[in-house]
Amino acid sequence: MAEKKSGNRYAVVDLEATGTGSDAKIIQVGIVLVEDGQIIQTYEQNINPNEDLSPQIQLLTGISNKELRKAPGFGQVAEDIYRLIEDAIFVAHNVKFDGNLLAENLFFEGFDLHTPRVDTVELAQVFFPTLEKYSLSHLAQALDLELEQAHTAISDARATAQLLIKIQEKIASLPKETIGQILQLADYLLHESRMVIDEVYEAMSAYSSHHHQDVHGLMLKTIEPEKKGTGLANDFSENLIRLGLDQRQDQEVFAQVVKERLQDQDKQVHFIQAQAGIGKTYGYLLPILADTSQPLLVSVPSLVLQQQIMEKEGHQLAQTFGLSIQSVKSSRHYLKLESFWQSLQREDSNSLLNRCKMQILVWLCETETGDMDELKQKYRFPSYFAELQHDGSLSAQSVFSEWDFWRRLHSKAQASQLLLTNHAYLLHHLKDQAYLTQNRILVIDEAQKLLLTAEEFTNQSMSLQPLLQNLQRRKDKAENLLEQRLYESSFFELQQLLHNYQNCGTTEIVSKDLKQLQQNLQELANLDTGLADLKWLLDFYEHFWLEVDYLDGETIYNLRATQMELLDLAALLPKEKTFCISATLDISKKVNLADLLGFKEASMDILSSQKSQQQEIFLLADGPDLVELDLPDQAVFVVDSLEQVRSLNQPILVLFTSRALLGAVSEVLEERSLPHLAQYRDGSEMVVKKRFERGECQILLATGSFWEGVDFSSQSQILQLIPRLPFDNPRDPLVKKINHYLREKGKQPFFDFNLPVMLLKLKQAIGRTKRTDQQVSAVVILDKRSHNKRYSRQIRQFLKEHYQLQKTDTAGLVQTLAEFFAKHSL
C-alpha cells in the first residue's frame, strides 16, 4: 500500500520584542507546528536581550526583567529554533515583523532562513470578509480561538495556529469553483500565502453541495425556503419569556396602550410618547404582530438604527417566532452581480483591489441579501465598491436577472410580515413603491425626526461650478450681443454669491440678490437642462442659501433652496393605521408634533415617566461659557475635563452638537497622547459603537445619530459628557420655517418650540446611557447656559422633574462622580 502523502508543515511563530523599531531585540519566542490540520508540537522560550525592558513592554507582555536575566541569550537557542522551522512554511499574524526579526537574528548566528511565508492577517481578511477587525484578539473573540494571555508569545502562536486551521476549514467548506477563482488572483496575496489555499484546493471534491448555485460563473448561496414559525402568543409577557427577555413594568404599560390603540376604530393615527430606555421597539412590535394578521412597516430615522434593529430585535423575532422580516434601503447598498462579474473579467494590478475581489467571492457564498454593508472593510477601497453599487435597474435579458439581489429584495419585501426601512427611503418611494405601505400598519419610530427628513426631502440643491462652466461655454457660443450679455451677467451674479461666501462668510441669500439672475434666465431662449433646472429652482422656491461640501479634497459649492411652508406630511402618508412613537412628541403646552406633521385627527397618549435612582445629572457650575469661546479654547476645556474624569476608569461617551468641535477635541487628545475613538475618523457609527462597547478605548467622541438613535446597554456603568446643550442652529432652514409657522399662529418660537425641543433632545441623549434597570449612568453637562441665562431656571426645573440632579464644580467633580459610582457598586 502506498504511503499517505503528508500535507504542508507550518511553523506558526510569534515573537515578543523590546519594541517595534529596527533595533528591537527578541525577548520571547513561541512556535507551534501544524500539519494536516492538527497541532503536532509546541516550543516556547524566554530570551535575555541583555538590556532592561521599558515599563510599557513589561506591562504589555507581563514579562519582568528578573525573569529575562535567568533566560539564555538568543545565540544559545538559535540552532534549536532553526532546526525546528527550517523545513516548514513560516506563518505569523503580520508575518513581515516576525519573519524579518527572526531571520535577521538567525542570520547573525550563522543560519540562513529562506522558508516561504504566510500571513494569517490577510488570509483571515479574505476568508472571513464580514468581520470588523482582524487583530488577533478580535479574531479570537469572533472565531472562538484560545487566547489565554494576549502578547505572550506561545499564547499568541497557539491562537494563530488555531486561526490557520480555521482558515483551512473555511476554504474546504467553500465550493471548489470559488477557490479556483480565488487562486487566479492569489498571486497578489502577501509573500507565499497562496500555498495554504493551494494545499486545500488539491484535496477538494469537484462536487458542489446543494447549498450553492453556479450562476454564470459565480457561486451564490442557494435560497433556502423560509421555515414556518410557531407564531406569537396573545400575551405580551409570554412573548417576552420566549425571547428570553426580562419583564419591565413601563414596557408592559406601553405595549398595552399600543394594543388598545390598535383596536381603536374611531381614529387611524396614534401618537404615543414614552420615556427612553423602556424597550419601545419590542413594546410596539410584539402587540401589533400578535394581535393582527395585517403586515407591518416600521420606519426609523437612520440607517444605523435600521441595521441595529435588524441585527437585534429582527434577528430574535425571526429565530424565535419564524417571522419573515425584510430590511429595505437604497439600491446603492446592494451588490450588482453584473458589475462584479465584469470586474472579474479584467486584470487589475492593485493588490488591495484584488483582495476585495477575493473577499466578495467568499461573501457571495454566504450572503442572503447582497447588502454590501455586511462587508465592514469596504471603506479600504471605496472607489471599487462604488463601481459595484446597484443602480436600481436591471435588464430582463441579464443572465443574473433571476438572482439579482435588488430584485429578490423587493420580491421578499412584498411578502414579508415585518418590513423595516428608514424615513428618507420611505418619503422618497411613497409613490413608486406602493407595496411599502399598501395594506400595512405603519409605525414611525422616532417620529420627531420625520420633520427633518421631510425638510431634506423637499430641499433642492445645485452645484455652482458646473453652472458657471456652462454659462461660460454658452457665452462663448452666443449668436448675438444680447444673448452674450445675458450669459455674462448671469455668470457675474453667480460669481458674486461665491465671492460673498468666500470673503464675508455669507451663506444666506436674500431674494433681491437673485432678481437679476432670475430675470436673465427668463429672457434667454432655448435653455439647456442645467440652466432650465436653475430657472425652475429660482421660480419655484422662496428661501436660498449656500452650502459647502468636500469631496476627495475638492471644495464644492452648492446652491440650496426650500419652501417657507412646512410640508404637509399627513397628506403624503397612507391612510392606514399609523403609530407615531417617540420620547419627544409633546413639545410644549402650545406645540405638539401632530400639529407640525399636519395630523388634525389623532390620539395622543403621554405615558408617565419615573426617575431612575441609578442615573444622575451633574451640572458644572463654574466652567467657562463655551458659547463665548472660540473653537480651540472650547476643545481645550473639554479635554481638560476629560483628563479629570478618565481617572474614574469608566467608559466615557462625549456627545457633541457639532462635527467641528468633535474634530478639534480629537486633535487635542492626539496632541496629549490620550487614546480615544472618534466618529468619522475611526469608522462609521456602528463600527465605533461596537469598538467602544468591546472596551478598545475608554473615550468615544460622537455626534449626529448618537443623540437619538444609538443605544449603549452593554456597559454596566458609564459616564456621559455633554459639552454644549443641543439647541438647533437658528439659521437652519427647517428651524426658520417652523419659527415662521409659529409666529403666524401667534406663538413664541423660542419658548414654545426651540427651548422645549432642546430639552427633549437632551432627554433623548441622556436616555442613550440608561437602557436597562441595572445600568448605572452619570451625565455631566458642561454648558454654563444651565446657570447664566434667563431661561436657565426652565432647564433646571425640567431636569429636576425627570432626573436626580446635582450641582458641582470643577474642583469637586471627580470626587462627586467617584462617590456616585461607588454608591451604586455596592
Count of folded domains: 4
Gyration radius, rounded? 31 Å
Structural class: alpha/beta
Average of per-residue pLDDT values: 88
**Tally the helices: what do you get?**
33
The CATH level-2 architecture of the largest domain is identified as 3-Layer(aba) Sandwich
Provide a concise account of the structure shown.
With about 850 residues, the chain is α/β, with parallel strands linked by helices.
Descriptive account of the structure:
The protein has 826 residues and is an alpha/beta fold. It has four domains: 9-207, Nucleotidyltransferase, domain 5; 211-448, 3-Layer(aba) Sandwich (Rossmann fold); 460-562; 615-823, Rossmann fold. The chain is 44% helix and 16% strand. It has 33 helices and 25 strands. The strands form five sheets. It has a seven-stranded parallel sheet, with helices on both faces. Strand 2 and strand 3 (38-46) form a beta hairpin. It starts with 8 loop residues before the first strand and ends with a helix. The model is unreliable at 1-5 (pLDDT under 50).
